[in-house]
Amino acid sequence: MSSDFADLVDLSEGIVQRAAFTDPAVFAAEQERIFARAWMFLGHESQIPEPEDFFTSRMGTESVILARDRDGQIHALLNSCTHRGMKVCRHDHGKAKVFTCPYHGWSFSNDGRLAGVPGALVGVPHFDKAYRGELKREDWGLSRAPRIENYKGSIWASWDPDAPDFLDYLGDMRLYLDYALDARDGTPGASRVVAGVQKWRVNCNWKFAPENFIGDMYHDISHRSVDMVGIGPNGGQGRRANFRPRIAIGFPGRGHGLLGELPTTEPEEWNNAWALHPEVDEWYRAAHEKRLADLAGRPRVAMSVGTIFPNMSFHGRQPRTILVAHPISPTTTEIWRWCLEDVAAPQNVRDAAREYFLRYSGPGGMTESDDMENWAYATAASQGPIARRRPYNYHMGMGHARPAPGLSDAVECGEITEENARIFHGRWADFMRGQPWPIRLSHAAE
Amino acid sequence: MPPSEAALAALLLRAEIEEWLLAEADLLDARRYRDWLALLHPEVRVAMPIARNLAPALLAREERTRAGQDVMWVDEGFRTLEQRVRQLETGIHWAEEPASRVTRLISGVRILEAAPDRVLAGCRFILHRNRLEDETDLLIGRRRDTLLRAGEGWLLHRREVLLDQSVLHAKNLTTFL
C-alpha cells in the first residue's frame, strides 16, 4: 500500500483492494482528503425556514450546525467550542441567536451582521477580570465552512476554499439532481423535506451506500423478496414494473452516477404509477402532463437513484429521498434519510408518498433492510488477512462505456454494469492522491 | 373490607389485557406471524415516531415526530403489516434469513382508559434480537396499545411505540415491536 492509498484502486484491472473498505489508516486518510475537501449535502432549507433556525448536521465524522442568521443567510459552523472542544449545540434542531458552550460559557453568534463574522466569539465569562481583556476574541470564532451553496433548497458545503464551484462539481449530474429537487410538474426547486430525519447506525463501511445507489442494477437478488410481495403503489409486482427502461449513466472524473434515462424529447404517456390510489394517480398524471407541456419539446430526464460523490445519494422519483452515509469508523456508518415532497401537493398525495417512503426506505423499509444485511456482512467478512488478499471485482462492462448522448462529460454502459462503481472509485483515488482539483475529465477514456 | 366490585373488575380487566399482550409477544417470538395477523383489527395502525434531542422550549411539542404527518420509523396499517409477513415467508428476506432470535419482555401493563368495548393499555418493553453470531440489538421503550373488543377476545386497533433512541442503534427494523 502506498502512503496515499490511491493504488488500492486499479481501474485498468477493474479491482479495488479490500483495505479501502476496512483499514483504519485508510479511513483516517479519507477524513482529511475527502471529507475535509469535497462538497457535501448538509440539509434542506425547508428545515430552517426562519431566521435564527438551526439544524445540526454532519460533515464526515464531525458535527456541523447549519444555521440561518437574522438576515436569512445560511452558514455551516463546526460544532466544537474553540476553547475546549465541547459541542456548543447538542440539539437536533431549534432556534438560537447565540450558541453558548455548557462547559466554560464561551458563546458564539450565528449573526454575521451583529458580530462581524458568523460564528464569532461574542461572550467570554471573566473576560475583563481573568483574561484581563487580553483575549483576541476575533481569532477564536467557530470554524466556518468557507464554501456553502443553496442549490434549489438543498444546502451543500465544503471545507476547501479552493473547491470548484458547486455547479462545476456537479457537471451534468445537475439535470438529475434537478429531477429530484423540482416539483413533479417541473416547477424548479418547489420541494421540501417532510419533518423528521431517520438516523441509524450500520456496521458497514460508508462506501457501500454510495456504491449501492450510484447505479448498481446488479444487486437485484438483494430485493427479490420485496419484489415478490409487491410494495409499489401501482398494485403490480415488483417495485418498478411500470418504469421505462433505465441505464447506468456516469460522470467520469466527477465521481457521480445514476440509474435513469438519457435526455429525451420523446412523448411519454403517464404510467399509472399510483394506480392503487386513483385520486393520487390523477394528481401525478396532471403534474406529468404539465411538465411535458411546459418543456415544449425541450429535452428532459428521469431517474430513480443516483450518488453525488462522496456520500450523498438520492431517489428522484417516489419514494423521493436524500441519503447521506456519514463515516463513523472503518466499519461503522451513520445513515441519515430525508423524505422529499412537493410543496404544492395535496394531503392525499403527501400521505401516499410518505407511506411508500416508510415501507420502502430506511431501516424499517422492506427494500432497504435487506441492503443493510448485505453491506454489514460484506464488511465483516472482508477484514481477515486471507480475505484481504483478494480484491473486490469490478470487471462488469469494462471497456464498454460510450459517451452518453445529450450529456457533457458523461458515459453510459447499458442497464447492468459496474461502470459507475469504477467511476466512483476512480474519483476516490483522485481525492486520496490529494489531487481532486482541477477535475480530471480525461478519466473518461481510461 | 372486601374489595369493591369496581376494583375487582379493574383487576380482572388488567389481567385479561396483560395476558393478551403476553400471548401476542409469544406468537411473535415463535414467528407465528399468520396467527399474529389474526389479532389485528383490519384498520390497525402501528406508529413508531422518531425521538429528537431538543431544547426545553421545543421538547413538549416536538420531541417525537407525528404519525400521519412526519417521517417515522414505522407508520403503517394492515396492508403493509401483512406484506411484511409475506416477505418473511419468502425465505429470501435476507435481513431475517437466517432467522433472528427475538424475545420480547413486556411489563408494567396498566389500563389507562377503559370503555366496554375498548381499552387503552400502557406497557414497557425490552426487545432483544440476536442474529447470526454476534449481532445483538436491544430496543427498549414504552408502548400504548388500543384494543377493541371482538367477540370473546380483543383486536389491536392502535399501537404507539416510543423507543428510547434518537439515532437507531440497529441496522434495520425487521421485527414487529
Report on this structure.
The complex is a heterodimer of chains A (446) and B (177). With 446 residues, chain A is α+β, with helices and mostly antiparallel strands. Chain A folds into 2 domains: 48-147, Rieske [2Fe-2S] iron-sulphur domain (Rieske Iron-sulfur Protein), CATH 2.102.10.10; 165-445, Alpha-Beta Complex (Naphthalene 1,2-dioxygenase Alpha Subunit, Chain A, domain 1). Chain A is built from 11 helices and 23 strands. The longest helix of chain B is centred in the N-terminal third of the chain and has 25 residues, at 5-29. Chain B is 28% helix and 39% strand. Chain B has helices at residues 5-29, 33-37, 56-62, 78-89, and strands at 40-48, 74-77, 101-115, 118-131, 135-150, 153-163. Chain B has a single domain, classed as Nuclear Transport Factor 2, Chain: A (Roll). Chain B has a 6-stranded mixed sheet. The chains are: A alpha+beta (446), B alpha+beta (177). Chains A and B meet through β14, α7, β20, α9 and α10 of A and β2 and α4 of B.
**What's the main sheet of chain A like?**
10 strands, antiparallel
Average predicted local confidence, pLDDT of chain A: 94
What CATH architecture label of the largest domain in chain A applies?
A: Alpha-Beta Complex
Helical coverage of chain A, percent range: 10-25%
Total count of helical runs of at least 4 residues of chain A: 11
Under the CATH scheme, which class of the largest domain in chain A?
Alpha Beta
Shape of chain A: globular
- Assign the CATH architecture of chain B: Roll
| Euclidean distance between termini CA atoms of chain B | 42 Å
How many distinct beta strands of chain B?
A: 6
Rg of chain B, alpha carbons = 17 Å
Number of separate structural domains of chain A: 2
Strand ordering within the main sheet of chain B: 2-1-6-5-4-3
CATH class descriptor name of chain B: Alpha Beta
